[in-house]
Amino acid sequence: MRIGTAKQTYAADEALFDTNVQRAWMGLFIALCVAFPFMASEYWLYMACLVAIHVISVTGLNIVTGFTGLVSLGQAAFMGVGAYAVAYAETKLGTPALLNLLAAGLLTAAVGALVGIPSLRVKGLYLAIATIASSIILHFIFANWDSVTNGVKGVSVPPARIFGVELGRPFALYFLILPLAFLSVLGAANLFRTRIGRAFIAIRDRDISAEVLGIPLLRYKLMSFALASFYAGVAGGLWAYFFRVVTPESFPFVYSIFFLAAIIVGGMGSILGSILGAVFMTMVPEVLKIGVGVASPLLSDAVAVLSPVRTIVFGILIIGFLVFEPHGLAEIWSRIRRFFHLWPFKT
Amino acid sequence: MSGFDWLFFTEVSLAGLGAGALLALTGLAFVLIYKATKVVNLAIGEMLMIGAYVFFSFTAGLGLPWWAALIAALAAGGLLGAVVERAIIRPMLGESAISVFMVTIGLGSVLIGLVELTWGAAPTSLPDFMGKAPVFIGPAYVSRKIVIGFAVAAAVIAVFLIAFRYWRGGVALRATATDQGAAYSCGINVPAIFSMAWVFAGVAAAGAGVLVGAVGGISPNMGVFGLSALVVVIVGGLDSIAGALIGGILVGLIEAWAGTYLGGEYKLLTTFGLLLIVLMIRPYGLFGTVEIERL
Asked: What is the pLDDT of residue A279?
């Protein structure tokens, strides 16, 4: 608890940011985000776009897994649905980009609600395994529904056009992806100040108690799946515009594990955790790449080593955070903040 | 169906039975861990892979005879199980089942990376140690590897079943599975039972890995076999050994039929479709214990 921030009204107590210092930092952060593309190189813009796409998807997964307590290993497959929806709309229908993204989100939400139906009868680990089954079935559809997905060859997506402006380079796409990421995070943060979001948290904490309290479990669980999938669908749509080619191999099962790892590392049930986790997990392979670059004069086949090392580091991060820091980076962050708030007193 | 080739169908079914026995063996390793420690071990496929690769190293790399390599692989599997239990699962005791589940996902990732780092990413095949002469059961042809795989898996499963029934440690394991507190108060060393379950599961997985590798070759992706085994135990019921056996045979047969009559890409689809159907109708599997939740 922070010193000197006594709340006088309920509105102040429920505010997203409770101090002016926080608001100032937030303003500074937004200003930095706006200025970023004019200062950064192409590579950093590319990474920023990828991070923002991952932030959207990870936030969605955090809604269903972190806040509602339903472990989903299908987030990557849902992104695939969104990506294929955008690819189809863009190549076959030629509808405007923003509409495509919305449609991708809605379609994926419908698919997600469908996949969430087993949560009617099963929960916990059984549900996690049911989502694995769903994601494998979705992969099968991606690879075999030739008329829509063009099979294993995949679909090339033309660049997004918004109001006649072509968004081809990361520099232009940045101004589409980042605002959407901001909107998604803001939406998720506000969701947990509403009745629906609170119901999700109640279901996570004890679903039977939640039902006794008058929360219709099935409806809210499906809603949670649908919301998470909506996020995944939008993220997948942006992914399609960003990489411009969608194949069944674009969204492997490992990618779902990547998202799960991101919310574990970032912090389950924390909006800030989703952001930190997405940034951290996206940057780790890049840092490893740099590390391999440094080590390459010493090691003969450093490049060949990169992929297995990345796999190992992913695994170690999941295990390490679960064993030693179950609340993730968000907890570390708040510990650091607490230290400065309470300084010179000890926490 | 007048043109239906019954002989071919029998051959496919026999091959499916062979694969089913391997699945059942892997499922047994899975159930063993779940019964004793209530951990759903998603890394079982990767533990299986490690066993196969260790076997590969000792036969192809060091040129040991196959039985010596097999012993080494089983020992390595047991050691792996012990290390994993002590280093990763023990600190997670009392955490939510889902956290432990995700720890095993991380473990699987680490094991895949280690295999790629040590042995390379390219698939290889195990040196042939079973002979090639085909076996005929009546008029039906069966690959020798599959027959041997089936026989070995069946024998190992029988040994495990007898051990659970009569051996002191097996009884202690069942007691722990039924009621940890009661087992403790009867003087059973429950943490040791946990380790034992993981060691035996590791051994069983390594054995299954060698058989699977002999039939289908080895690669860092062979952990996917673990996904099929996952379907087996969910269909059969997570805590039922009989369920693992029947589920293994069932999934093996269905995979073989789907793979032959629909095409290879339908294999995973049908098994996971089966999984979804069973989950919807019987959420605790065909033979699993129904958990009753109370507030």
From this structure: 94
Beta bridge partners of B140: B137
What ipTM was predicted for this assembly?
0.84
Interface contact flag, B103 A323, Cβ < 8 Å: yes
Domain B6-281, CATH number (from 2.60.120, 1.10.10, 1.20.120, 1.10.3470):
1.10.3470
Is the pLDDT at A347 greater than 80? The verdict is no
Tens of pLDDT, residues B151-164: 888 888 888 889 88
For A17-68, write each residue's pLDDT tens digit. Answer: 877 888 899 999 999 999 998 988 889 999 999 999 999 999 999 999 999 9
> Measured between CA atoms, how close is A69 to chain B, in angstroms?
9
The DSSP bridge partners found for residue A156 are A245
CB contact under 8 A, B106 and A318: yes
Q: Do A136 and B269 touch (CB under 8 A)?
A: yes
Q: Where are the domains of chain A?
A: 19-251
Structure-token pair, residue A296: 């390459």
pLDDT digits (tens, 9 = 90+) for A185-196: 999 999 998 999
Assign B218 to helix, strand or coil.
strand
State the pTM of this model. 0.89
Domain spans in chain B, listed from the N-terminal domain onward: 6-281
**Separation between Cα atoms, residue A8 and residue B121, nearest integer Å:** 62
What pLDDT score was predicted for residue B151?
87
The DSSP annotation for A41-88 comes to: -HHHHHHHHHHHHHHHHHHHHIIIIIIS----S-HHHHHHHHHHHHHH
- A65-84: pLDDT as tens digits: 999 988 899 999 999 999 99
Q: Residue A308 and residue B116: Cβ atoms within 8 Å?
A: yes
Instruction: Give the number of C-alpha atoms closer than 13 A to the C-alpha of residue A89, restricted to the C-beta side.
Output: 24
Going from the C-alpha of A29 to that of each of A32, A34, A277, A320, B237, the distances in angstroms are 5, 9, 18, 30, 51
Burial of B63 (0-12, 13-18, 19+ CB in 10 A): exposed
The C-alpha angle A314, A318, B109, rounded to 5 degrees, equals: 50
Report the alpha-carbon distance of residue A206 to residue A192 in Å, rounded: 17
Strand A165-167 to A160-162 pairing:
antiparallel
Say yes or no for a CB contact (<8 Å) between A118 and B265: no
Of A143, A144, A318, the CB nearest to B109: A318
HSE, CB side, 13 Å, CA atoms: give it for residue A4: 5
* Distance (Å, whole) CA A53 – CA A47: 10
Q: For residue A316, list chain B residues with Cβ-Cβ distance below 8 A.
A: 106, 110
* Residues shown for chain A: 347
Q: Closest partner residue to B280 among A121, A137, A209, by Cβ?
A: A121
Can you read off the two tokens belonging to residue A51?
Answer: 């991070």
Dist CA A109 CA A54 (whole Å): 17
Instruction: Tell me the C-alpha distance between A217 and A226, whole Å.
Output: 14
* Mean per-residue pLDDT of chain B: 86
pLDDT per residue as tens digits for the range B41-81: 889 999 999 999 999 888 888 888 888 888 999 999 999 99
Q: Which two tokens stand for residue A203?
A: 């279901």
Task: Give the residue from B85, B92, B221, B272 with the most A CB atoms within 10 Å of its CB, the best one to mutate.
Answer: B272
pLDDT (mean) for A274-300 = 85
